[in-house]
Hints:
With 363 residues, the chain is of the alpha+beta class. Among the domains are: 2-126, no CATH class; 291-357, no CATH class. The protein has helices spanning 44-48, 70-76, 118-138, 141-168, 172-217, 228-235, 237-319, 328-362; strands at 2-3, 8-13, 18-23, 58-64, 85-89, 94-103, 106-113. The strands form two sheets. A four-stranded mixed sheet has the order 4-7-6-5, with helices on one face. α4 (141-168) packs parallel to α7, α5 packs antiparallel against α7 and α7 (237-319) runs antiparallel to α8. The protein is rod-shaped and about 160 Å long. The model has no long low-confidence stretch (mean pLDDT 84).
Amino acid sequence: MIETGAFRMRWELHTEFSSYTFFRPLETGEHLHPDATAFDAVHPEWLSGIPGKLMVATHVELRSTNDVTPESVLASLTPNGRTMVAAKVAEEAAWIFTDFKIDNGFSRFLVLNESLTQRQAGRTVQRLVEIETYRMMALLGLPVAKEVGGWLYKGEKQLAALMDRIGAAKSPEDERGVLAVLSTLAAEVEHSVARTTFRFGASRAYHGLVMQRIEELREVRIPGLPTFFEFMQRRLLPAMNTCEAISRRQEELSGRVARNSQLLRTRVDIELERQNQELLGQMNQRAKLQLRLQETVEGLSVVVLTYYGSQLVQYLAKGTKEFHHLNTDIITAISIPIIAGLVAWGTRRMRKKLASEAGESSH
């Protein structure tokens, strides 16, 4: 708070903006130029030194009904002039007039005090300033909604085209191509949601504050003029509904993209499982062929080993025929089945041992 001889200034820090309120007293019966504001008493370099961008500028003129009568204000209204918003407030202790138009950079309110206490007058002025401030801050979501609305229309058309491509997909390659495009669309939707969630949420909150401050005014209708509540319902509510609708469409598009992505991933996974089953079947068939080939090789191995074994027996029999008179051919013939049986038995025993070791290693 800053106090000077010509004005008083109050600074407040809010969530995403700062407010500067300048107060200048009026003398009883003082004539005020239509374009005059409390800034007239402030040095221009002070105003130019305020950081940031100007979002809202509101001028509130508080007069006594002894200086300005409500009847004189109503009489000055022309049928074809601006739409005036007016109401009696605080149990008809004061009159408020405004048209919510911007004149020389300011929206203007005229408050005619009939029986307000000093505290009531201050709270009424504060509520009017907050109504205008929060109204303009709520409307910041409307340009964002218009921008996102155009993109949403394209995104919804793209999603519909992708659904047609999913239905017409003939091969896993087609489905994987659609899934790649769908994933890109999902990323764009989520980026848009993340970028606009705060703005749309803030607009809803500011709109709620505007309606709350209007309710606190305790309006009473002036015949022939709309109240603040009616003005906001006609001018502010459609903008808020637009923001709400765009926010809801974003969420719905995000959900639809997620569901369709999951559906397509399921189709791709099912196709991969089918291919894996075919691959496993082919591997099983190869394993059976290898087993048969192994059994064939084992049979040939028995024959080969039996042959070489019988040859060794024959050589031994020939070498020892001087010590006995047995026929070497008979000895060789007798040894063949014996050798074949031993080789077959050894081969089977080795196979069982390897199978048991493989079973133990798998456990």
